[in-house]
Amino acid sequence: MSIHGFDELKARMEVFQGKLHDYINEQRSTLLQLLDSYKEDVENYRIKKDSINSQLNQLVEEERELTQEIRSIQEQTQQTNSKMEAYEIKKQQLTEERGILERDRWELKELLAKKQKEIQRHKESIKKQHLRDNPEVKVYEQLLGLKITTPKPDTLCFNFINVSENSSNAQCNFTLDLSSNGYKILDSSPKLSQAQSTELEQNLAITGDLPTFLKQVRSLLLDRMST
C-alpha cells in the first residue's frame, strides 16, 4: 500500500471513529435519559403504590368498621324486633283489658240508670200517694167535690166539680206533672196563663203546701170561668 493510500485509509478511519464516537455518545445519552426516565417512573410508581396501599389499608379499615356497624345494627334490629313483638303483645293485652273495662263501664252505667229509674219511680209513687192520702186533700174531695185521677204515669189530674150553683155539670180541672224534681202544670180547663202556672209551680216547690196550692188553683180557674 502506498503512503497516499495509507493516509486516505487513516483519514477514513478517523472519520469512522468520529462517527462511532458520536453514535456511542448519542446512545449513551439516550441510555442515560432512559435510565433517568426509568428512575422517575419507578419513583412515581413507588409513590402511587404507597398511595394505593394507604388507600387500600383505609378501605380495609372502613370495611372492618362497616362490618362491625352492620353487625351492631343487626343486633339492635333483633332487639328492636323483640321489643316490638313485646309491645304488640302488650298492646293487644291492653286493648282486650280496655274492651273488658268498657263493657263493665257500660253495664255499670246501665245498672245505675236502671236503679235511678227505679228510685225515681219509687219517689214519684211515694209523692203521688202522699198527695192522694193527704188528710186535707181528702177533706177537699168531700167538701169541694175534688176528684183525683191518674191519666198516665207520673201525672195527677185534679178535677173540681160542684163549682157553680147555677150548673151542676160545671167543672174545672188541671193536670200536674210529677216526673221532674219539681212540679209542672201541664194543662188546665179553663186555660191558665203561663205566668199564673209558673207562679203556682214555684210556690208549691218552695212551700210544699198542697192544700194552699189547690185553693189557689181552684180560685184562678173559677175566675177564668167567670170571664
Would you give an account of this structure?
- The chain is rod-shaped and about 195 Å long.
- It is built from 4 helices and 4 strands; from the N terminus they run ααββββαα.
- Helix 3 packs antiparallel against helix 4.
- Among the domains are: 84-144; 145-226, Copper Amine Oxidase, Chain A, domain 1 (2-Layer Sandwich), CATH 3.30.457.50.
- A hairpin with a 5-residue loop joins strand 1 (146-149) and strand 2 (155-161).
- The mean pLDDT is 76.
- It is 75% helix and 11% strand.
- Strands 1-2-3-4 form a 4-stranded antiparallel sheet.
- It has 227 residues and is α+β, with helices and mostly antiparallel strands.
- Component of the NDC80 complex, which consists of NDC80, NUF2, SPC24 and SPC25.
- Pfam families: Spindle_Spc25 (PF08234).
- InterPro entries: Spc25, Spc25_C.
- This is Kinetochore protein SPC25.
- Residues 6-132 form a coiled coil.
What's the arrangement of secondary structure elements?
Layout: H1 3-133, H2 135-143, E1 146-149, E2 155-161, E3 171-177, E4 184-189, H3 194-207, H4 210-226
Antiparallel strand pairs: 1-2, 2-3, 3-4
Helix pairs in contact: 3-4
